[in-house]
């Protein structure tokens, strides 16, 4: 068969053959469900009935007019704050552990290990850490003399619960971000640092003028993942608090899942998912605009 075809045609057939299966899988498990999600967002489907009544934009009006839906976005703010701090700390450890520090590989492994752990297992573990009466955190605070903090209900206080949950994510993902930043640092040519040292640049000047600008693409990527991750948090509050106390830790994704599976309103849940997707796209565009301002045109 191939003997009668030209080289270019044979190459085209082989390339298309190798791409066909991945494209079919992508279309089946990504694009088709996305199209169905958009369709369901314009219906009042209950999830199991063959009838899918068309309601047009009613679901979207419900999302934007119902304060109980958009209020949960404020709970995601704590994850955004801790995510920014997480990236700053990750850059610091990446810079320190990229220097000639004795035992740096052991420190890298220790900081990266939490990321390997299962998310649900981490959530259960921190459930014991934050326990009000027998939790290790309150016992530690009591032993160092901070008795007024030792009785704090970290997961039961409305103003603290989201930051307590977000700190768990900080502990788990900081090492992963650190490894990404270490890889970025290793890609920076050493000649630049040697030239800066000859010119008399100090450590802070080298960090600010050489290291961070050369890490900018990776920092942009990690910040995007951090912001989108903050918008899409689900597992930690679901396992540890179930959205409590009194809905104070319920996130937007939890609200979507509750709308779909607890209230059987798959149409409204689909509309909420589409809106979340648009929010992620807007965040990406704003981030690109802000971080690229003043850059090369």
Automatic annotation (TrEMBL):
**Which InterPro entries does the record cross-reference, listed alphabetically?**
ABC_transporter_permease, MetI-like, MetI-like_sf
Q: What keywords were assigned to this record?
A: Cell membrane, Membrane, Transmembrane, Transmembrane helix, Transport
The main place the protein resides is membrane
| SUPFAM superfamilies found in the cross-reference section | MetI-like
User: Which top-level group of life is the source organism from?
Assistant: Bacteria
What PROSITE patterns has UniProt attached to this entry?
ABC_TM1
One Pfam family, short name: BPD_transp_1
Residues spanning the membrane = 12-32, 77-97, 109-130, 266-291
Cell compartments where the protein resides: Cell membrane
What sequence ranges are listed for the domain ABC transmembrane type-1? 76-287
Membrane topology, as annotated, equals:
Multi-pass membrane protein
Do you know which CDD domains this protein is assigned to?
TM_PBP2 (cd06261)
Q: Which family does it belong to?
A: Belongs to the binding-protein-dependent transport system permease family.
Could you tell me which PANTHER family the record lists for this protein? ABC TRANSPORTER PERMEASE PROTEIN (PTHR30193), INNER MEMBRANE ABC TRANSPORTER PERMEASE PROTEIN YCJO (PTHR30193:SF37)
Q: Which protein are we looking at?
A: Melibiose/raffinose/stachyose import permease protein MelD
């Amino acid at each position: 068969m191939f003997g009668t075809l030209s080289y270019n045609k044979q190459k085209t057939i082989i390339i298309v053959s190798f791409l066909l299966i991945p494209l079919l899988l992508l279309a089946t498990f990504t694009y088709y469900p996305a199209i169905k999600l958009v369709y369901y967002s314009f219906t009042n489907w209950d999830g199991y009935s063959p009838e899918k009544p068309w309601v047009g934009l009613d679901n979207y009006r419900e999302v934007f007019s119902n304060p109980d839906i958009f209020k949960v976005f404020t709970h995601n703010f704590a994850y955004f704050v801790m995510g920014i701090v997480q990236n700053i700390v990750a850059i610091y450890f990446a810079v320190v552990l990229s220097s000639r520090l004795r035992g740096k590989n052991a420190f890298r492994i220790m900081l990266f290990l939490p990321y390997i752990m299962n998310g649900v297992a981490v959530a259960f573990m921190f459930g014991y850490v934050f326990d009000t009466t027998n939790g290790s955190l309150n016992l530690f605070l009591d032993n160092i003399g901070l008795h007024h903090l030792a009785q704090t209900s970290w997961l039961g206080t409305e103003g603290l619960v989201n930051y307590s949950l977000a700190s768990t994510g900080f502990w788990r993902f900081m090492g992963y971000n650190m490894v990404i930043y270490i890889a970025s640092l290793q890609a920076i040519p050493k000649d630049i640092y040697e030239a800066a040292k000859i010119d008399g640049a100090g450590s802070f000047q080298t960090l600010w003028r050489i290291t961070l600008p050369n890490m900018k693409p990776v920092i942009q990527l990690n910040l995007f993942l951090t912001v989108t991750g903050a918008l899409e948090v689900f597992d930690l509050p679901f396992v540890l608090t179930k959205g409590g106390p009194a809905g104070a830790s319920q996130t937007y994704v939890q609200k979507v899942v509750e709308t779909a599976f607890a209230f059987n309103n798959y149409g409204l849940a689909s509309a909420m998912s589409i809106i979340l997707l648009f929010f992620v796209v807007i965040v990406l565009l704003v981030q690109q605009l802000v971080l690229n301002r003043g850059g090369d045109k």
